[in-house]
Design brief:
By secondary structure, the chain is an alpha+beta fold. It has one domain. About 15% of the residues lie in helices and about 25% in strands. A 4-stranded mixed β-sheet has the order 2-1-3-4, with no helix packed on it.
Amino acid sequence: MMEWAGFRPLRPGRIHLYCMKCRRKQSNVPRGKYDPPRAELVQSFCERCGQGGKDGPEYFLDKHGKAISYEEIERIVNKLHPIR
């Protein structure tokens, strides 16, 4: 497991947030509906700097610091909202 400098240990059902604008770190924020289950860190904008993930860029990283592909995220979204 990768040690995330400046973050508390990750709790179940939570994710860490790193703001790409102000570099703020938030530990154990509630996980979003579409967050990949294996993601441990999301790089996005915090509530102070942006839309809090709405319409902003989001990059998910696993416990080894490896980026999670958009294809994997798309599969999760399609599972929750199948195209008819």
